[in-house]
Amino acid sequence: MRVGLPRALIYHYYYPLWKNLFEQFDVQVVISDITSKELIQKGIKVTVPEICLPIKAFNGHVINLLSKNVDYIFIPRFVGIESKKWFCPKFIGLPELVGYSIDGVKDKMLTIDIHGNREDTCLLENYRPLCNVFNITEKELKKALKKASAYWQEFKQYCMKGFTIEESMQILNGEQMVSNTHPEITLGLLGYVYNIYDPFVSMDIIKRLRQMDVKVITFEMMHEKDIANVFSKKSKSIYWTFSNKIYGAAKVLMNDPEVDGFIHVTAFGCGPDSIIGKLMELDSDKFRKPFMTLRVDEHTGESHLQTRIEAFVDMIKRKKFAEQRRELA
Length: 329
Ligand code: SF4
Description:
globular; 15 helices; Rossmann fold
């Protein structure tokens, strides 16, 4: 059996888990191609115009998988993975959104509902519908979920050591990674994994920053507990799971003297980001840390993005070196 995974949205966070889980049942995992202009254009054509870029991209990836001779396309409905927090409504309605946008996809959709308060999603009731599809028992599924969860936890450990999601996956595959040990400045890179890690959407922003000798910290490189603890009784956390992680990460990093500034990567048309973007900007004012918003859509040009990043990084480096000179004088 061949099951397709769209290389979009939450794929960038849970791919190691799903690959490990499916392959335990001899399922061949097929991933859609890397995002390109053509792929996004196909998604745009079938999606309502007012929706955010990541959803248009997701539809493009589903269309791409339809041409890959797969038996199913895995489209989970993410409702919640922690207590009293929810996913953005576009995630909750994703199977319907895709089903009504793309002709002929409904028969191929493999959908499960993710509820509960486990970050690894590995509750038996979440994945139970797979028993019929893969022809397996609940006992076999339970055992496989335990193994997949352990594998995903290992992946997360590498992320928390400062490796990017892609690097962590490569390390799990036995590859060696070398990091720049002498960065000139450190930036908090704030944004959803599907914006930061999609090389077309963010135009490889992490690679670009590293080439400029910048150390990058993203929310998944931080400890969950630190992010959760930053919301004291006085400061309210955010209602949406991943928006809360990003806002919490920003709050932790604002207090970190090692962090020289912030870049928030956000997609045009994102509702939750219009709230947390403003909150993070206000906090950065309070902490006197430079903050830049990069709002991306399907028309964003590479040279425009590169110029803005270079100017921001240059400004922070000059400021930092001037401060260091003053301290030495
Ligand atoms: S959080 Fe924002 S970018 Fe992500 S799916 Fe929801 S609206 Fe789109």
